[in-house]
Amino acid sequence: MTKILVLEDEDSIRSFILVNLKRNNFEIVEAASGEEALEKLDDTVDVALLDVMLPGISGFEVCKRAREQYPSLGIIMLTAKGQEENKIEGLELGADDYIVKPFSPKELLARINALVRRIHVTDKAAEKKETGNQIVSGKFVILQDERKLLKDGKEIELTPIEFTLVKYFMENANKAVHRDEILNNVWGYNYVGDFKIVDVNIRRIRQKIEEDPSNPKYIEKVWGYGYRWWGGEE
Length: 234
Hints:
CATH architecture of the largest domain: 3-Layer(aba) Sandwich
Helix content: 40-55%
CATH superfamily of the largest domain: Response regulator
Order of helices and strands: EHEHEHEHEHHEEEEHEHHEE
Strand order of the largest sheet: 2-1-3-4-5
Distance between the termini: 45 Å
CATH class of the largest domain: Alpha Beta
Radius of gyration: 18 Å
């Protein structure tokens, strides 16, 4: 059973979330403050829903600490409508996605289920468990069964969404891919967010894989279109 931590200080909103998640058979851990969330967070939690605006420790700080301690944790930020800077800051701190308040139960469940699928690798290729199934591109190797990315033989720690994004790039090496293609193939055809989630995740990945993130050579930007993965191939 998927375990979800819900951090929300407003009782009515937290109750709304809990009712809908329990109705769909998720195991729930609830927290009304950042301090309580950090106390209850452990490696049995699959996904954390984090409200941004909180008294005391903010959702941003919880996101940052959670990502540092639990790299494979799925994180979704709950942001207020129109607060664009909140979305960007959360993504840059390691969140996988965001939901803008007010949101419907349908949207909430769709976002959670999409993230859970990426975490647990329920696609057909993963279910086959093809031992040693690798994707190689220049200096980089993806070990699909182990959900690992290696550069020059050394593991680079990625979040679930970062891994899926790099895998998609490596499967389409040397090809310019439009942001629409990236959103559809990585986040899903029903994703209702915007292109910024692609750009921010690519900035995060560059910080991890590039020798000089300000002058990237593995993930190139194709101006007015999207991105191209070279992977260090000569």
